[in-house]
Amino acid sequence: MSCVSSVSSKRSRYDDSNIFEDVHDVSMQTPVKNCSKRHQKWSLSIATPATTPVGKSDGKRKTRSLDEDLISSPLKFKGDSNVLDVEFQELSLQKVLVSLSASDAASSPVFHIPELLHRIFSSLDHESLNHCSMVNPIWSAVASRIINKDLVVQQSSISGDLKIVELDDKVHPKTLTFYKLKNHKNFVENQLPRINLLRLDSLKFYISPIIPAVLNKAAVSNNLTKLTIAGNKNITDQEMVYLIMGLPNLIELDLRACSQISDVSIVSIVKHCPKLQSINLGRHENSHLITDLSIMALSELENLTTLGISGCDKISDVSIWQLYNKHSTRMVRLSINGCTQITDNSISDIVANNGFPNLTVLDIRNCALVRFKKLIRYRDWRSKYLTKPIHIHISDSMKEEFELQQQQLYKEFRTRIMNDLNKWVNEES
């Protein structure tokens, strides 16, 4: 057996169960002994579960880095929903397995049930999974299924050492994530040949360069439906157009913080990815490059349900009206956080009149909105009479005015009820 990178299942901050709920950054670095100097600088590893430690909060607000923002952006897509069951981590059974020696655990009949082992192994970190895979054939088979599902390739920011595990066969991941890579030559030469990408469904580059060899290998099967290129400040319109031409089956595309992408790329994406349902263009440093033209083009996508344009301050009310005209019944998630040219003249009037009847999440933080009564009235109506309530997210600077107008609205409502009752009583008498 030859030495290749440590491979494990990934259930962490990359899981997207709630598209507007921040997930705190959790370190993905778990030290494992070196196997070969020849493979230094690269690792295939697992993101550890994003659990919340028990204890009191220090009350201090931490400043998040760009990569933390990219992972915990308010706009996430509903396609990834494999969130680790936090409650399960607290079950004594899992703790028993971790505390037992390998021989003690393997000798118990209960730990020979594959379904039970899979449930337990799914909460283990990659080093523990590697140890479990060497206990017996049953444990090896269960651990291998988890190992082969999701791969994370990352470069250690501390030592740069390679984390190693021996594998008999190629892995067949469904998700492949590259995180904070600087040089991919060693990976392409020594590790990529051991990875079969025919089953790959999701490919993610977080603050990492694009690896053409990986894209070409993944595009052969036409199974790739989700692509993330977040935090890439070097990719240009020309490169994006070339890249997207070979991915006609894309459903989800995340281009957050790609600061050189402009309207040119978006128009090309619409042309070559007609099945696209979700796209995120937020956190763009050169926001002037994304204008109403991009939204006009995206509105032509027949299946568009999720749109993130956070911080694109050149997008105006015109874009919202265009979305209403083209996607009034299909839009489910909309983030216009920081779009300072979007006003009450579009989003408030459209939403208040049930213009987006299937909209479930609306992020209006830091927009130029000042009239909230229509939105409050519509939110309460949806919550009371429909099975699909709408969640409206506002910024701290808007909160005081929002609550004030909400109190005024409820006061007006109570006054109207009392007037109607008095009128009814007087008519009866």
Automatic annotation (TrEMBL):
<dbReference type="GO" id="GO:0019005">
    <property type="term" value="C:SCF ubiquitin ligase complex"/>
</dbReference>
<dbReference type="InterPro" id="IPR006553">
    <property type="entry name" value="Leu-rich_rpt_Cys-con_subtyp"/>
</dbReference>
<dbReference type="InterPro" id="IPR036047">
    <property type="entry name" value="F-box-like_dom_sf"/>
</dbReference>
<dbReference type="GO" id="GO:0031146">
    <property type="term" value="P:SCF-dependent proteasomal ubiquitin-dependent protein catabolic process"/>
</dbReference>
<dbReference type="InterPro" id="IPR032675">
    <property type="entry name" value="LRR_dom_sf"/>
</dbReference>
<protein>
    <submittedName>
        <fullName>WGS project CCBQ000000000 data, contig 00053</fullName>
    </submittedName>
</protein>
